[in-house]
Amino acid sequence: MTDRISLTPSRHLKKRYRAEKRFKACCIGALVLAMAFLVLFFTDMIRQGYSAFYETQIRAEVTYNEDTVEFAMDSVSEEVFPLVSRAFFRGVPRQVENNPDLMDTTQTQWLTAKADVDQYLKGHSESLDPEMKASLEQLQADGDVGYGFNTGLFFSGDSKIPSNAGLWSAFVGTFYLMLVVLAISFPIGVATAIYLEEFAPDNRFTQAIEININNLAAVPSILFGLLGLAIFINFFGVPRSSALAGGLTLSLMTLPVIIISTRAALKAVPQNIRQGAQAVGASRWQAVRDHVLPLALPGILTGTIIGIAQAIGETAPLLLIGMIAYIPDAPGNLTDAATVLPAQIFTWAGMPERAYVSLTAAGILVLLSLLIVLNATAVILRNRFERRW
Amino acid sequence: MLVFFGGLLPLATVAYVMGRRKALVADARGDRLHSLPGQYGVYVATWMALPAIAIGVVAAGAALLGVQVPAAPFVLIFALVGAAVGGAMALRRVEPGLRARNAIEKFVYWTLFTASLVSILTTLGIILSIVFEALKFFNQVSVWHFITGTNWSPVAQFRPDQQTAESQFGSVPLFAGTFMISAIAMLVAIPIGVLSAVYMSEYAPYRVRTIAKPLLEILAGIPTVVYGFFAAITVSPLVVDVAALFGLNASYTNALAPGLVMGIMIIPFISSLSDDVINSIPNSLREGAYALGSTRSETIKNIVLPAAFPGIMAASLLGVSRALGETMIVVMAAGLRPNLTWNPLEDMTTVTVRIVDGLTGDQAFDSPETLAAFALGLVLFVVTLTLNLVSIIVIRKFRQSYE
């Protein structure tokens, strides 16, 4: 054999180093591409949605008297009337009812503009009725057109009038749904995890349960919707579109997430904690209850929050159990027809008017912020309380 | 219901106090207790609550199944009597030698065991709910026609007895659409997912890793309805514009846009699973390769990736299963028209779109179109179950082999 070992890099070696660089560049490129998607996605949503957070308002004299309560369209001048959202005129009688002092007075108010006007001024649509355009330009010249925060987006329910549509009923629906999900999936999930991790004998049946749970975590969500429809609604007679039906269905979906993360948290508690407790005479359950569970609690809570966050964003199974109905008023209890944030987004996404596109994107931004807050809480909880052994 | 549990709580408290007092009295007499006094209390309270809850559950179950049940107040009285009898018997049994702690232990064990059955029941529930309706469907339409037919054109039927034209339920175009969109998704997700996992586990400095990993996870946390909107509003028109640049004609509900967006959604599933798998390859393998003079990329390509292959395969299968079952993206961005084509720029529909469409319309619940949704659900369940099971078992085996 030869004993010539060359110390100058051969051509072959150079080629190999180039291959090395290429491969590393590919890997970095893949990650950068994934990040680029993320950036593109968020900028696109913000670009589409930011304009729905403010609304065009028009300053006008509003006259309240017997006639205008009856015919609300007379409460403002003829030029202003076509520009103002119809939702305002519907509300005139109620305004007077709530505040009788308004009767027979004239108030200068900022009124929410009609969606056409709003979209025109935001540059989303080119066309506007020429008459409306003329009076709008007149008002602009007088400084009677302004922008204000769109409170309706958060505090009014869904509406067929885009300038009046908001997320309030979806917020309430989401809240009810999460109550149901939490009440069902948290206790059952934690109990299952404790059973599997601390008590279950290692036999075929236990393994079957484990595999089953892993499979449930990957079953398409729409199949849970079929289950909800066939079993909860058709068999048990839970009211269709109700928060209860949705909550029950989503609980079953959240269950595997909570079980898997609780098991991981329990597994992280070292064995000698249990042995120590049992050495001084604690029974198995006492050791788990008084020593293992408190130590695993941060992990369990983190997993639960992540599971809940997933459930908040879930839509497909809810479509099947009828939670895409038009719900203008917030539900009063668990069995009322309800809608949730993602379902509201879906409904708005299907609306033909241009104004709903911004509303949808704004709804998405609100939903994403909610999820980011929840997940950030989970991360903080984990970093602050998680113990490493 | 509220009355039921509201009434049970104070009763159970009373039972607890009585059981505990009896044990304490025995203790004061100087007898040696087997368990703590409180455990006797819990023992009595449990024996009191159990019969009451059992009676309540049985009554509720019977009422649901349509069996004649006595009116609610009577059920309540029954439950109370059950509680009283159970509590009294348990209280009589309380004596120093009674092993209350062991009884509690047993009770806890069975409670936890019952809880773990819920997940089994869920799977059973899914199977039952789908299979029954699907069987009804296959009574009307032959399985063979369903699997091999290439024409899907259900005719809406609003009343069960309505006479309509013959519906066609050949599901091949739906499967074709589903596989086309899933294939596009996997073409995006697998390379990007695996390569970024390789970067994060083999190359990235610790700091980059701690930042990049959670950022990637964000992609997995975005709700699918949001992706659907993104696909329909931004990506679809983009695809149409780009296609026009090449002189191609694309539909606004083309299969490419939902496929691409679905791929983005699946990246984090594949990357985080592959990351785990690559990390579990022992370092001795890498060091062996370095010692023989391999460069890093050669080590990765020739040693690490082949060793991790089963795991990466399993991760990809889970990704495929997710793509097949994904609903919102395709409902919002893909078409409704069943279309058998190889061209991803045309509109195609998928199994999940048809399930949603069949169940959100106004058709009578027993109409073939509604039942067809369940038949499609059955196919979806069987396919994803197979994929999931294979990948779960492969991952389990893989973990064991390197532990």
TrEMBL record, chain A:
<keyword id="KW-0812">Transmembrane</keyword>
<keyword id="KW-1003">Cell membrane</keyword>
<keyword id="KW-0813">Transport</keyword>
<dbReference type="InterPro" id="IPR005672">
    <property type="entry name" value="Phosphate_PstA"/>
</dbReference>
<feature type="transmembrane region" description="Helical">
    <location>
        <begin position="292"/>
        <end position="313"/>
    </location>
</feature>
<dbReference type="GO" id="GO:0005886">
    <property type="term" value="C:plasma membrane"/>
</dbReference>
<feature type="transmembrane region" description="Helical">
    <location>
        <begin position="21"/>
        <end position="42"/>
    </location>
</feature>
<dbReference type="InterPro" id="IPR024573">
    <property type="entry name" value="DUF3333"/>
</dbReference>
<feature type="transmembrane region" description="Helical">
    <location>
        <begin position="243"/>
        <end position="266"/>
    </location>
</feature>
<dbReference type="InterPro" id="IPR000515">
    <property type="entry name" value="MetI-like"/>
</dbReference>
<feature type="transmembrane region" description="Helical">
    <location>
        <begin position="175"/>
        <end position="196"/>
    </location>
</feature>
<keyword id="KW-1133">Transmembrane helix</keyword>
<keyword id="KW-0472">Membrane</keyword>
<comment type="similarity">
    <text>Belongs to the binding-protein-dependent transport system permease family. CysTW subfamily.</text>
</comment>
<feature type="domain" description="ABC transmembrane type-1">
    <location>
        <begin position="171"/>
        <end position="377"/>
    </location>
</feature>
<feature type="transmembrane region" description="Helical">
    <location>
        <begin position="356"/>
        <end position="381"/>
    </location>
</feature>
<protein>
    <recommendedName>
        <fullName>Phosphate transport system permease protein PstA</fullName>
    </recommendedName>
</protein>
<dbReference type="InterPro" id="IPR035906">
    <property type="entry name" value="MetI-like_sf"/>
</dbReference>
<dbReference type="Pfam" id="PF11812">
    <property type="entry name" value="DUF3333"/>
</dbReference>
<feature type="transmembrane region" description="Helical">
    <location>
        <begin position="216"/>
        <end position="237"/>
    </location>
</feature>
<dbReference type="Pfam" id="PF00528">
    <property type="entry name" value="BPD_transp_1"/>
</dbReference>
<dbReference type="GO" id="GO:0035435">
    <property type="term" value="P:phosphate ion transmembrane transport"/>
</dbReference>
<dbReference type="GO" id="GO:0005315">
    <property type="term" value="F:phosphate transmembrane transporter activity"/>
</dbReference>
